[in-house]
């Protein structure tokens, strides 16, 4: 049994025994959902978590009260132990004025053969609010999984959002990311996706950052590694509509297979003369100097490639 | 001699860059190659390490008596040869500690960083990425070479990007390499670096034209090489 599968099973068992606090303790808020069933919820002061059943999944509503700072990460564990099925998590995150929260989401599909995981999120950050959302995926090696993370984020004045999507174990399968931000003045966002695909995996990243208010800023950064015959398509856009808005699109795809298909389309649009947006994009093999540097320290070529890719995916 | 180059010729883009280089480096010594920009110094370093695109046209590169010119980079590194780049590259997601632990021969990362004047507590958790300054990156590169305890280290301008107050750390690291039994071949324009070498060779127009004691070769370089016909012989910068 894989370690992350064991972790999910342990979580499920502990929730069944009503002993989940032995893992997270009283200080950590958390939600554990296996398939279409809420296994457990732990609220802490300042956080309200509500769930209800929807078709093929669960609706989750998380609210952080005004001025509340949650110092410990809120753990979200969404997964499915069966090999087949569909899981829809329709979530809303409301972070009140001046509040801050950090979420660590583990999406675990250890036995996936024919699974579809849809994660639709709406994030609403009030004035001066802050939120970090780090999503880590653990999949089986079959590639039989479709993951559709969709995010629409509304960033109020002077708020900040950090959103990270990382594929940590197993095959990506078919990942189709759609992220959209609508940002008021002085708000900032960082959207980061790091995914490695192999065999016939397909990775699509579609991000749009709308800088609607004065001095709003946003960065869209994607790192995709494609091996064998994997496909990667990155469409990232920053639209700067107001004065002093600043945006940057940074796409890098590393290709390492004869049949790989990689496409990268960074798009930037400026609708105000005092706005500034930039972009950079690259598709290619692993940088020769990086590889040669590690080989000159004694690493075999394949180990050097592995170290560079692992670093890139962190 | 631990390292010899015999009648080494190299061409790039149909142009002969090295025209029969001969060089002999004594074991456990510091040997510096000086020369004007574009004379083929970095090309020579790249050929010694066997980097992509650097294939010997004719001649030999001998390490401990064996011709290594057909070996891969890793094979050369496993024999104890390494290269410190003039402009070290960056690595996204790799920490300084991890970098210094690659092929580490029992020199603790803390110790190798201290030798180049960097605070281990501050630098070990940092990433070897573009947030480091050129000078910091250069010193970390030297640390990683110290960690490797090489038999033969080729250092391409180890002093470039290092501020004047920190340059003594470069000397300290080079002396540590000697203490560990290493042999060091340096490519430099810096008189300070050349000055404490055991031997200096002057590369000009693709050949070693003068060798000897530091002062003698440095003085010759200063007096004869600044306006010589070979200046700018390679027209696309430092090859």
> How many H/I helical runs of chain B?
9
Please report the number of helical segments of chain A: 4
- Radius of gyration of chain A from CA coordinates: 20 Å
The count of strands of chain A amounts to 19
Given helix and strand content, the structural type of chain B is alpha/beta
Q: Give the CATH superfamily of chain B.
A: P-loop containing nucleotide triphosphate hydrolases
Strand percent estimate of chain A = over 45%
Largest interface: A-B, 22 and 22 residues
Morphology call of chain A = globular
- The string of secondary-structure elements of chain A, in order, is HHEEEEEEEEEEEEEEEEEEEHH
Give the terminus-to-terminus CA distance of chain A: 24 Å
Kindly report the spatial arrangement of strands forming the biggest sheet of chain B.
6-7-8-3-9-10
- Name the helix and strand elements of chain B from N-terminus to C-terminus, one letter apiece: EEEHEEHEHHHHEHEHEEH
Protein name (chain A): SUF system FeS cluster assembly SufBD core domain-containing protein
InterPro entries (chain A): Fe-S_cluster_assembly_SufBD, SUF_FeS_clus_asmbl_SufBD_core, SUF_FeS_clus_asmbl_SufBD_sf
GO biological process, one term (chain A): iron-sulfur cluster assembly
Organism (chain A): candidate division TA06 bacterium
């Amino acid at each position: 049994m894989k370690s992350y599968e064991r972790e999910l099973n342990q979580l499920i068992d502990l929730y069944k025994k009503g002993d989940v606090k032995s893992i997270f303790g009283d200080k950590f808020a958390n939600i554990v959902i296996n398939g279409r069933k809420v296994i457990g919820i732990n609220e802490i002061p300042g956080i309200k978590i509500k769930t209800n059943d929807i078709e093929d999944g669960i609706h989750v509503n998380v609210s952080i009260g005004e001025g509340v700072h949650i110092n410990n990460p809120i753990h979200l564990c969404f997964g499915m132990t069966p090999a087949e099925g569909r899981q829809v998590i329709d979530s809303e995150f409301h972070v009140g004025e001046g509040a801050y929260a950090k979420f660590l989401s583990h999406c675990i599909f250890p036995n996936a053969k024919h699974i579809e995981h849809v994660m639709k999120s709406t994030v609403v950050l009030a004035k001066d609010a802050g939120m970090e959302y780090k999503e880590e995926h653990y999949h089986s090696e079959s590639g039989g999984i479709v993951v559709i993370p969709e995010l629409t984020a509304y960033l109020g004045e002077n708020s900040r959002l950090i959103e990270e999507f990382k594929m940590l174990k197993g095959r990506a399968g078919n990942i189709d990311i759609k992220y959209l931000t609508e940002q008021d003045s002085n708000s900032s966002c960082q959207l980061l996706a790091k995914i490695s695909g192999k065999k016939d995996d397909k990775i699509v990243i579609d991000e749009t950052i709308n800088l609607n208010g004065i001095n709003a800023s946003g960065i869209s950064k994607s790192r995709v590694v494609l091996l064998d015959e994997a496909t990667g398509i990155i469409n990232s856009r920053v639209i700067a509509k107001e004065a002093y808005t600043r945006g940057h699109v940074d796409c890098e795809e590393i290709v390492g297979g004869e049949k790989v298909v990689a496409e990268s389309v960074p798009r930037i649009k400026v609708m105000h003369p005092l706005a500034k947006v930039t972009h950079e994009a690259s598709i290619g093999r692993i940088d020769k100097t990086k590889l040669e540097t590690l080989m000159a320290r004694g690493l075999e070529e394949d180990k050097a490639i592995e170290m560079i890719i692992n670093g890139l995916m962190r | 001699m631990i390292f010899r180059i015999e009648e080494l010729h190299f061409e790039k883009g149909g142009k002969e860059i090295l025209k029969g280089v001969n060089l002999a480096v004594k074991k456990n010594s510091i040997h510096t190659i000086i020369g004007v920009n574009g004379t083929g110094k970095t090309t020579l370093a790249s050929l010694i390490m066997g980097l992509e695109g650097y294939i010997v046209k004719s001649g030999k590169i001998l390490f401990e008596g064996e011709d290594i010119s057909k070996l891969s980079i890793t094979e050369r590194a496993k024999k104890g040869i390494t290269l410190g780049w003039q402009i070290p590259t960056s690595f996204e997601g790799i920490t300084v500690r991890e970098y210094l632990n690659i092929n580490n021969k029992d020199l603790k990362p803390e110790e190798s960083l201290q030798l180049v004047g960097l605070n281990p507590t501050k630098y070990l958790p940092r990433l070897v990425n573009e947030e480091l300054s050129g000078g910091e990156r250069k010193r970390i590169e030297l640390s990683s070479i110290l960690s490797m305890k090489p038999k033969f280290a080729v250092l391409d301008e180890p002093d470039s990007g290092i501020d004047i107050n920190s340059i003594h750390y470069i000397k300290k690291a080079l002396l540590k390499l000697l203490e560990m039994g290493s042999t060091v071949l340096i490519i430099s324009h810096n008189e300070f670096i050349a000055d404490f070498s055991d031997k200096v060779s002057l590369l000009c127009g693709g050949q070693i034209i003068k060798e000897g004691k530091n002062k003698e070769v440095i003085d010759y370089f200063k007096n004869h090489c600044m306006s010589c016909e070979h200046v700018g012989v390679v027209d696309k910068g430092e090859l």
